[in-house]
Amino acid sequence: MIEAEGLTKRYGSKVAVNDLSFTARPGTVTGFLGPNGAGKSTTMRMILGLDRPTSGTVRVDGKQYRELREPLRTVGALIDAKWVHPNRSAHAHLRWLARSNRIPVSRVDEVLDMVGLGEVAGKRAGGFSLGMSQRLGIAAALLGDPKILLFDEPVNGLDPKASTGSAASCAGSPTRAAPCSSPATCSPRCR
Ligand SMILES: Nc1ncnc2c1ncn2[C@@H]1O[C@H](COP(=O)(O)OP(=O)(O)OP(=O)(O)O)[C@@H](O)[C@H]1O
User: Where would I find the ABC transporter domain in this sequence (predicted)?
Assistant: First the structure.
């Protein structure tokens, strides 16, 4: 579960997120909807401790992200698919993530196969297309088999087959709309 209370982020005089409160409950697909610049990515970065709120709190399973001992086992995230050292192979990138969270290295091969990158596991991530990078980011999010997955525009660059695949798996999930607490935030039913 993710719980935000009065979450606010200002960059100088710019208010990126204004007094946002919401609960993203287990077994639901919760979406952040809003125009460009509405504060969706900033909200996700605050959930993951990559941005510090100006005020308010956000907790993942009752804790701040930085308090999670092996965070990849609780929450898997894809925020920026190009955040990978370009000279590392897909396998090497996932290996260090796995080791940092005491995840068996055997899991690296599993998630690479899941996202269809098994055949290019040894290739430099810097040479990947956007869609391949997105797949690698999704593999990283799945690495710790977490209960919570947090994705920022995950189908950017994915081919129709991959995009439809994610929609199909979504269609089978139990979903429930959570209350909207800000114009920029709501929880649509999975379509
Ligand atoms: N590091 C930063 N420094 C200054 N302003 C920032 C910073 N990060 C984001 N902003 C500003 O905060 C606002 C919200 O940005 P954010 O990236 O969260 O929007 P978004 O809803 O994810 O947009 P998009 O749909 O285009 O991805 C924007 O006005 C943006 O310019």
Answer: 2-190
> What pLDDT does 170 receive?
34
User: Is residue 38 a part of any domain in this protein?
Assistant: yes
Looking at residue 42, which CATH number applies to its domain?
A: 3.40.50.300
Is there an atom of ligand 1 within 6 Å of 40 CB?
Answer: yes
pLDDT of residue 121: 96
- Of 20, 45, 53, the residue nearest 185 (C-alpha): 20
Note the pLDDT tens digit of each residue in 65-94: 999 999 999 999 999 888 889 999 999 999
- Ligand 1 binding pocket mutation candidate from 41, 51, 155 (most atoms within 8 A of CB): 41
- Give, in order, the Cα–Cα distances in Å from 103 to each of 4, 44, 75, 143: 28, 24, 14, 8
- The predicted model gives 104-121 an average pLDDT of 96
Domain count, the chain: 1
Query: What is the percent of the chain where pLDDT is above 70?
Result: 85
Q: Is 156 in the pocket of ligand 1 (CB under 6 A)?
A: no
* Contact call for residues 74 and 61 (beta carbons, < 8 A): yes
Range of 117's domain?
2-171
Whether 188 maps to a domain, the answer reads no
